[in-house]
From TrEMBL:
Protein name stated in the entry: HAT C-terminal dimerisation domain-containing protein
Originating species: Adineta steineri
Low complexity bias: start-end ranges: 37-50, 370-383
Compositionally biased spans, kind Acidic residues: 389-400
SUPFAM superfamilies the record matches: Hermes dimerisation domain, Ribonuclease H-like
Biased composition (Basic residues): 405-414
Annotated PANTHER family: ZINC FINGER BED DOMAIN-CONTAINING PROTEIN 39, ZINC FINGER BED DOMAIN-CONTAINING PROTEIN 4
GO molecular function, one term: protein dimerization activity
Lineage, top ranks: Eukaryota, Metazoa, Spiralia, Gnathifera, Rotifera
HAT C-terminal dimerisation domain: residues covered: 711-791
GO cellular component, one term: nucleus
């Protein structure tokens, strides 16, 4: 039915007037809705009528001003384009049923309501160029490529939310064929396909493919030179990240640095490696490799080494070495370099030195000509004058080096000196040892020769086929390897004997007595357990040194104690021991200590007492572990001195806290509990205050009288459920930092120090893996960059 011309002209006039004034007719005016419906019926399609009634600008205004009537609905169709995460279709609420009906021919942004004309054939070019879509793309790129610690967990979480698809067999076979061809052609490890870094890289290509469709990957990949240059930039960014991470622990004195020297096996380039262990404000124990830089000193003297250490730490904002603690081995140049700083020496290194000397595995005269293996293997080019002073003293003085913070003991050295002057264990030669003891030393040498023969002739596989285990070789540097050698030989003694008889080589086993091997294992097993426990690097370990030292001394004091140790550790150890070891424990009661074995046991004990002396920080670390706070096994005088040392350290922390408070605005003061304790310690100069009935050491050097119920006293007297305590002491101090604000700071400073320098040794092991035969020409500076990037990535896990 056609409309009168007057009606049609009025409708057009009304529509024109409405658009020009932007005064939109509401649904409450029935006279205006009818003409629009009539106009809609005239058009040939809904699309054309929508275009006539709406424009992009009008829809944008409607979406902003009439939110109850107009909205943007999502595109329900499956779309691969990223723009549909931002854009949708404008829609108007229907008067009849209250549902939103899509306005055809347009698409609108859900964020800013920007509207574009859209048809399925027009494409998404305008939407992709919109700023809101670009912002979303940039945010996605940041989530997947950012190297900061705050975004790294997001990357890991994103790996679990990608769409799961099921590929068909043909597609899976294609991927497997390409993977196997790559592994075989380029001689890669099979495990490389499980590498997380490779998965992240491939996932990024999938994201790019969803954005651009199929494209040549050469457009995204860059050449070797470009990637090499980018590693320099990335390493500098990561050093800046480390600098920020280390700032708070540095100011709190909660960083310990382990420096050492190393050289690669190919070009013999000397490197300086530095590893830092620190405790965060959240009481988390962290390890990070700061550098593995080429050592550019003029020589390998202590002075040159100290300069190199200072320069290596500067990129991380560490300029004052007095804020650090140091953990080091006893290399002559390291001792000289760190003599003015608070340094603790590696406990496992010391045990290794004691055992090597006790069993005459390293002649004394060799130390004078060669620098220590743990310090610089490639120092053959160093002139003798450069290390003349330190080398001469290292042969003997290094062996009896005193700790930095020595604990005072009662004078009991007169009786010992009269007995040790006759046969000084440090100067005793192998020829001066009784014959029965020399036979045991000879047994060790024969065991090494036998294992070399077995390995050289490929007989380990035959031993395993006959029910034994492969015999393991030993090195002088790692004494644990000798213990493993003896244990493997005892386990496979019968199989080895049978194989040697078949080859008519039984003479190689004639000088090796199985009974002697079992006694040697019995003697060395306590050292094996101690070394394995102390060298764990994922949690504090300094507190173990004192109880482990007392355990070793007790086990070596008599043969009965040694046997008792075997039975107790067999019941409590979590290590997987060989079946023969369990049998040897059952027959350990039948063993009788031979005369030669007794001589060696007492020699090991005497050398251990002579060559290793505990530092006050060893005692303090044990005291600050809630499970060992009573210092059992220590004398009363030792406990008194440790308590006095802890209180002096608390006074030092309190003094620094007061200085910091003067420079800090009141807004930063958050913990009221800590402030009250600081005020309590301000009155510690009142000598008339009632004192604790502590046992006094009687020393005139310590005149400090502790206040009643100070933090240390309350910590020592508090009742704890030991079954709920963790082996990690930092978990306790995290929970009780409010009750013990000063002691908790001291706990952070002490427990950041490891018991060994194993962390920097692991850094060198990683460096040796990187500079392999295929990459022998890798730039030394690039190795340093790789170590830093790898270390930060591990820190962010």
């Amino acid at each position: 039915m056609s409309l009168p011309s007057s009606t049609l002209s009025s409708t057009i006039t009304l529509s024109t007037k409405t658009f020009s004034n932007s005064n939109f007719i509401s649904a409450g005016h029935p006279q205006s809705s009818a003409p629009m419906t009539t106009c809609s019926s005239i058009t040939s399609s809904n699309s054309s009528s929508s275009t006539k009634k709406y424009t992009s600008e009008r829809i944008k205004l409607l979406l902003k001003q009439q939110t109850s009537t107009y909205t943007v609905i999502k595109n329900e169709k499956t779309n691969s384009s990223l723009c549909w995460k931002v854009f949708g279709f404008p829609a108007k609420k229907s008067e009849a049923n209250g549902e939103y009906e899509k306005i055809e021919g347009f698409t609108s942004c859900q964020t800013c309501n920007q509207t574009f004309a859209y048809t399925p054939s027009s494409g998404t070019r305008n939407m992709l160029a919109h700023q809101c879509v670009k912002n979303l793309t940039n945010n996605n790129n940041k989530r997947t490529t950012s190297s900061s610690s705050s975004t790294q967990p997001k990357l890991n979480s994103m790996m679990n939310i990608f769409k799961k698809v099921k590929l068909n067999e043909k597609e899976i076979d294609t991927v497997k064929d390409l993977t196997c061809s790559w592994i075989c052609r380029d001689m890669r490890s099979f495990k490389i396909i499980e590498d997380n870094g490779l998965k992240q890289l491939l996932q990024e290509f999938v994201i790019l493919g969803s954005k651009y469709g199929e494209f040549d990957v050469a457009n995204a990949l860059r050449g070797a030179d470009t990637m090499s240059n980018h590693i320099y930039d990335l390493a500098n960014e990561y050093r800046a990240i480390l600098k920020d991470i280390l700032q708070e622990p540095l100011e709190s004195g909660c960083i310990c640095v382990s420096p050492d020297l190393w050289s690669d096996n190919h070009k013999k380039i000397p490197y300086l490696g530095i590893t830092a262990t620190f405790v965060t404000k959240q009481f988390e124990y962290k390890i990070v490799d700061l550098c593995c830089k080429p050592f550019l000193g003029d020589d390998h003297s202590g002075k040159s080494l100290l300069i190199a250490i200072q320069k290596a730490l500067e990129p991380f904002g560490i300029y004052d070495l007095n804020k650090l603690s140091f953990m080091s081995d006893r290399g002559a140049n390291l001792i000289k370099a760190l003599e003015d700083y608070e340094t603790l020496y590696c406990f496992p290194h010391r045990i290794n030195n004691v055992l090597k000397r006790a069993f005459f595995q390293l002649p004394v005269h060799r130390i004078k000509t060669n620098p220590p293996a743990t310090t610089q293997p490639s120092a053959s080019t160093t002139s003798v004058n450069n290390l003349n002073d330190t080398d001469e003293s290292s042969s003997e003085d290094e062996e009896i080096l005193q700790p930095t913070k020595r604990i005072r003991k009662k004078k009991q050295t007169k009786k010992q000196s009269s007995s040790t002057n006759v046969n000084d264990p440090m100067k005793l030669d192998l020829k001066d040892l009784p014959v029965v003891a020399r036979e045991i030393i000879e047994t060790i040498k024969q065991c090494k020769k036998l294992v070399r023969y077995i390995k050289k002739n490929g007989l380990n596989k035959t031993i395993q086929e006959n029910g034994g285990v492969a015999l393991q070789q030993s090195t002088v540097v790692r004494w644990l390897s000798l213990i493993n050698l003896l244990e493997s030989l005892v386990t496979s003694y019968e199989q080895t004997k049978r194989i040697l008889n078949n080859r008519r080589q039984q003479a190689k086993l004639n000088k090796i007595d199985e009974y002697t091997l079992k006694q040697l294992i019995c003697l060395l097993k306590p050292f094996k357990h101690v070394l394995q426990l102390v060298q764990k690097g994922d949690s504090p370990s300094l507190y173990m040194v004192l109880p482990m030292t007392l355990t070793l001394k007790k086990a070596l004091s008599s043969f009965d104690e040694l046997l008792k140790y075997q039975t107790t550790t067999t019941k409590t150890t979590d290590d997987k021991e060989n079946s023969s070891e369990q049998g040897s424990d059952e027959e350990s009661e039948l063993l009788v200590e031979s005369e030669g074995f007794k001589i060696l046991r007492l020699r090991v004990l005497e050398l251990f007492n002579l060559m290793f002396e505990l530092d006050l920080r060893h005692y303090t670390a044990t005291l600050l572990h809630p499970c060992y706070r009573q210092l059992r096994g220590c004398s009363n005088s030792e406990r008194d001195e440790v308590h006095l040392y802890v209180r002096e350290e608390m006074k030092r922390i309190l003094y620094h806290s007061k200085q910091q408070q003067q420079d800090v605005s009141p807004e930063i003061k958050k913990r009221k509990v800590q402030i009250s304790f600081l005020q309590e310690y301000e009155d510690d100069n009142d000598l008339n205050s009632p004192s604790i009935n502590d046992k006094s050491s009687g020393s005139e050097d310590y005149s400090y009288i502790p206040l009643q119920a100070d933090e240390l006293t309350r910590y020592l007297s508090m009742e704890l459920d030991k079954s709920k305590l963790s082996s990690n002491p930092l978990e306790f101090w995290k929970d009780y930092q409010g009750a013990f604000p000063i002691l908790s700071v001291l706990a952070r400073q002490i427990h950041c120090i490891p018991a060994s320098s194993a962390a920097v040794e692991r850094c060198f092991s990683s460096s040796g893996f990187i500079v392999n035969e295929r990459r022998a020409c890798l730039s030394p500076d690039q190795l340093d960059n790789i170590i830093v990037i790898r270390s930060v990535k591990n820190l962010q896990k």
